[in-house]
Amino acid sequence: MFDTAKRLRTLCVLATAAYFSAGAARAADITILCSTGLKTVVEDLASEFQAKTGDHLVVTYDTSALLKSQIEAGKPFDVVVLTPPLITALIQQGIVADGSATTLARTGIGLAVKKGAARPDIGSAEALKHALTSANSVAYSTSGVSGSMFSAALQKLGIADDVKAKAKTIPNGLTGDVVARGEADLAVQLMPELMSVAGVDVVGPFPAEVQSYVVLTGGISAVTADRARAEAFITFLKAPPAADAIRAKGLEPS
């Protein structure tokens, strides 16, 4: 079984290499549904992939949960990037091709302040607790996985009720935008999402005592018209140059 899987991976790599060598002769659109956790990476690398292959990336970004709901409602795609449990659920439904799941990166949650504002100490659990309870308001998302991660951190710190009483919650989007507009003192979200907002300064990730990670996994549509294109894009995201971009955007490559 292991040998068979190894041979299949080898054939996939060879097919992908052949696809890249074909270049723009077979250029077409590749539809990507991507978690906002990997948005900054894909935006940074899209032009390089398009120049290399001649293909055009058509990308929709949203939280993993909302993208899964859209897919289940019939939204078409070639490649999807979500959290592992959601990819697994789509595989079980026959929507994502079995065997196509590929771990791409992981990232934790962090904290940001308005650009130029004083940066609180969050180097320890006790320091983070003080920063959160001292702030007038804290912005976080209720639909993304960062929201559940933040809730778990608040429970560990024992300040869930205090922080939620002064929370500025948003159903989706970037919490950094809320802080940049002056509507909250602190923004909590995944590190790459915070780093994508020009109007904030990222203080850093949560300390290890209360940190947790979201893993981002790519999958290929079970009914894609051209699996080679989809595989080529995922292979591209696993290559060393992409790993450098992933690190630069606040994530850890797998």
What's the topology here?
Blueprint: H1 2-22, E1 29-35, H2 39-53, E2 56-62, H3 64-72, E3 79-82, H4 84-92, E4 102-114, H5 125-134, E5 138-141, H6 145-157, H7 160-164, E6 167-170, H8 175-180, E7 186-190, H9 191-195, E8 200-205, E9 213-220, H10 227-238, H11 240-248, E10 252-253
Parallel strand pairs: 1-2, 1-3, 5-6, 5-7
Antiparallel strand pairs: 3-9, 4-7, 4-8, 4-9, 4-10
Helix pairs in contact: 1-10
Characterize the structure shown.
With 254 residues, the protein is an alpha/beta fold. It folds into two domains: 2-106 and 214-253, Periplasmic binding protein-like II (D-Maltodextrin-Binding Protein, domain 2, 3-Layer(aba) Sandwich); 108-212, Periplasmic binding protein-like II (D-Maltodextrin-Binding Protein, domain 2, 3-Layer(aba) Sandwich), CATH 3.40.190. 45% of the residues lie in helices and 24% in strands. The longest helix is centred in the N-terminal third of the chain and has 21 residues, at 2-22. It is elongated, with a radius of gyration of 20 Å. The two termini are 24 Å apart.
